[in-house]
Amino acid sequence: MKLAEKTIDSITRLKLKSGTAIEIHLITQDEDINRLIIEKGDESLSLDQEEISDFISLFNDFLESM
Q1: For 22-49, what is each residue's pLDDT tens digit?
Q2: d(CA 35, CA 57)
Q3: pTM score above 0.90
């Protein structure tokens, strides 16, 4: 019997000024595959490993423009 891959889920919950909670999940599997999932209520955004750095760069640009 082969065991399933191990998965580690690191969760960060942010509470916005409006009271809305956003959860950020960083999921790492045995094969060192990372996925970032951002959830707000029933909605979610899922980014695969190759998309995470692009998202972070875009988010940094957004924050610096404010």
Answers
A1: 999 988 877 777 888 999 999 999 998 8
A2: 16
A3: no
In sequence order, which residues have a C-beta less than 8 Å from that of residue 53 and are 6 or more positions away?
Answer: none
Extract the tokens encoding 5.
């891959």
Average pLDDT over every residue of 7-25: 89
User: What letter would DSSP give residue 66?
Assistant: -
Single-letter code of the amino acid located at 2 = K
Give dist(CA 37, CA 25) in Å, integer: 5
| Residue count of the chain | 66
Rounded (5°) CA angle 21-55-46: 55
DSSP class of 30:
T
In this prediction, residue 53 carries a pLDDT of 87
